[in-house]
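Sync notes, pocket subgroup
Present: LS, DG
LS reminded everyone that the earlier model was apo-only. Rerun requested with 3,4-dihydroxyphenylalanine included. Inputs:
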Amino acid sequence: MDIQQKIEKIKEEIKVFDATSDYELESFRIKFLGKKNGILTFLFKELKKFSIQDKKYFGKIINNLKKQVTEKIQLKKLKQQKNIPHFDPTLPGIYKEIGSMHPISILIHRIIELFSKIGFSVVEGPEIEDDWHNFTALNIPPEHPSREMQDTFFLYNNTDSLLRTHTSSVQIRYMKKHVPPFRIISLGKVYRNETISTHSHFMFHQAEGFYIDKKVTFLDLKQTILYLIHSIFGDITKVRFRPSYFPFTEPSAEVDIYFGKTMGWIEIMGCGMIDPKVLKNVNIDSEIYSGFAFGIGIERLSILIYKINDIRIYFENDMNFLRHFQSEF
Ligand code: DAH
């Protein structure tokens, strides 16, 4: 093979060369530019034997080939660097905070799960309500003193547009549109303008339950509440139904749980048999149907479960607090 043929062969080989590893790249370099046996190194040595004219002519070509080889190697190395992100194993790892369910959401899910098991369906209602759904239909007429029990946020200076003060409004919305029997649970935010309050930020969560059918009695109510409390606080928890007053239930009761000698009885929710006047407002015949309803404050329930003394902690986004609930869900 004469020098011209050799050059053509080398040219072709450089052109088609492709490397996927460092090892292949290094072998390629050694093959052509290796100090001892590199093909181009050898050709440079051979040049000595050529005439001055050929030396000039082939020298240029071989130099060019050398340039091609080095450029190809450099290019491949650059590409590799781009593909492999720079990794320094001595650097500390990048810590990623893992999010978790908020304790209030955990409890909301738990309540939904418990009531699903006994045939309750979940419905939602709007947070912006009108007077009729939030008050009047629930047997709380204008000027009724019990409106003062729930200090209301009105919107746009309009007394008919307000932030719901309780989830009981969902009772009205649902009952108006559906024919009994039904068992419903509704959970969500409610708003009250209370300055001296165990609630924070004028917003808290409630769960509202109601059940209407033929022959629903106070016994059904009691059993449902006992099921809820015993599921959450344990079977031996002492529960007390204390006569109370709500405009939308008759009779009404407040439910207390016994938390031992130091804490004593603590109120956790309100309930009662839905007042026939309320049923009338939503066109349900109280001669045929009866029902019960109850309302629970979620934050309140949650502080009792976790023995937390300041409710504001739920809204402070304090990771040290929230992290405690990571394993709960
Ligand atoms: N709506 C009441 C409140 O926010 C709670 C309540 C009491 C709801 C008795 C009920 C009930 O459904 O029967 O204070």
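DG: The chain has a mean pLDDT of 91.
LS: The beta strands are 121-122, 128-129, 154-155, 158-163, 182-191, 203-213, 239-246, 249-258, 265-274, 290-297.
Action: DG to write up.
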